[in-house]
Design a protein that fits this description.
Keywords: Disulfide bond, Signal. The protein is mainly β. The chain has one helix and 23 strands.
Amino acid sequence: KLTSLALQPAITPELVHGRVHLKCSYSRPSTKPPLQYLVVWSRLSTPGRKEQIQRDTTLQSFSYVEMNGRNLGLGDTVFCTVTAFSRDASEQQSLPEESKGFYAGIKFFPESLQIAEDGKEHVLTILSTVPIACPGQDDSCKITLQLSTEDLGKNSQLPGPPNVALSACQVDLLRAPCSESSCAAAAVTVTAVTDFAQDGNRVSRIRAEAVGRRDLLWRVYTPKDVKVTVRDLPTGNCYSFTDPHIITFDGWRYDNYKIGTFLLCRSMSRAFEVHVRQWDCGGHRSATACNCGVAAR
């Protein structure tokens, strides 16, 4: 066998004649006579098991495989294995070297979220690891993803109302030059719905689906869901009752027997306030007021 040649194969995405291809590139030792290369393309069919999809014998330091949506499509993890051998003596072969797995499709960062009912926004980045092909539409080449949420309930068993809110229901992935495993990217914010209910921690998922695409590559592809775990937080309460006794959020108690319209509560951080109107309900015997109206914003 030939000694280890450190071919270091790596996979990158590329558009070739307007069609999505993957390119396996590797180092080319300066030997005399020049070497030939056997490139075997494979994809992960089941966890831990690979399925061969193409063999290529070449003098070049690269090999291409097309993503046609049939034997190789979006959602596949792809590998290329390269073996060098002498043109004069084919039995003289190097040890085969395998690339890292390349995931072709939509990726989410982070892949899962753990958030709380505290009003904070969390950024979810959506990117495509392969270039977007739009023959004849280079000026506005994009993939539109429809986003939706589904509540899986407490411990993923009891479905319920929406538990997370998204800043957008659709995002456009605009074609851009591929760099650092991203050929198009967009972002949305995810916020937990504050439901004022002590319903425990709940699990939701975010789904994305490509819409309006006619080509086979995107039409048959559904990206993986994003799992979102929402941590339940206790809700503050305040009260105004009977004539009227008031208990504030922090438990302070007092009475307000006066007649008129009052500001009961106001948030200092957002547009939220509650007004209350009180009228005389004690008559001549006692100075007592009762709630007769409330307005909330």
